[in-house]
Amino acid sequence: MLLSALPVSEVRGGIPYGLIVGLPLWKTLLLAIPANVVAVIPVILGFNWAAERLADKPLLGKVVAHLLKKARGKEDMVNKHGVWAITLFVAVPLPVTGAWTGSVIAAVFGMDFWRALGCMLVGVLIASTIVTIITLGGIGAANAVAYPPGG
Questions:
Q1: What confidence score (pLDDT) does residue 72 get?
Q2: What angle (nearest 5°) sits at the alpha carbon of residue 11, between those of residues 43 and 90?
Q3: Which of 49, 55, 141, 150 has its CA 20 to 30 A from that of 20?
Q4: What is the rounded end-to-end Cα distance, in angstroms, of the chain?
């Protein structure tokens, strides 16, 4: 759950970890997906409020300015594709994509809470599917190499 809730790893880390340590798939997904989605609720609700209060702080202000610049860099995408842009952004399981960054983008552009949460949920479900398929394929390939048939 912790790996899935963290902004760096999200389900990209939680699902592989759960499967590698031997948790059943259903339990891994039952822990990873809600942890990732629930973790970003404070971001959706409070990012703009926190950004205003931290803007004039020496170190934190620079971090906030960087996050705002990154989010505003997606403005054309958000304006053109709206909800789908954020959902697909969250769905792609690559570095700097995911529910945390998607939540910042949704907050910066003033997306309604429930709509933003829906984008995060659908995006995380898609990302979880992709990560699960890749992880299971990797585990299967590793097992085939370690324990070849007839070997």
A1: 81
A2: 55
A3: 150
A4: 37
